[in-house]
Amino acid sequence: MPTLLDERAGLIAGFTATVVLSILMIAKNSAGLLPQLDPIADIAHLARLPEGTIQALWFGWIGHFALGTIIWGTLYAAIHADLPGLPVVRGLIFGVLAWLAMMIVFMPMAGHGLFALSLGLPAMMATLVLHLVYGAVLGMTYARAAHE
To answer: Could you list the residue ranges that cross the membrane (predicted)?
Structure first.
């Protein structure tokens, strides 16, 4: 059972990792890479918000941060001790697990099919890389915040 310090560390690590991931997503979009891969728009689409509206944009980003900070950060705090290796390795493992969840649950719900196959292999690989970065930052930040 995670302690209050563990949960706090999970939220700090989840938020930090989500900020880093978001910067990379914005850079990807600014560079015009994989425009069909837009998880923020997908979150808004799942909420049935009109595409391209400010409400959809805000909802998508809030959903993205809530998932990365609260859901994944808290879950990481709960299971990190059961993952093998140094903090960065634990984070990388968790990043792969989060990526699998995205590919098996979120992408089909967003209309992109299992493993986002409708978006193509580059989108699948890009999301894996982004989740590995998220996981590495999550693991290292959690270890510092939890004083491990």
So the answer is: 9-27, 58-79, 91-111, 123-143
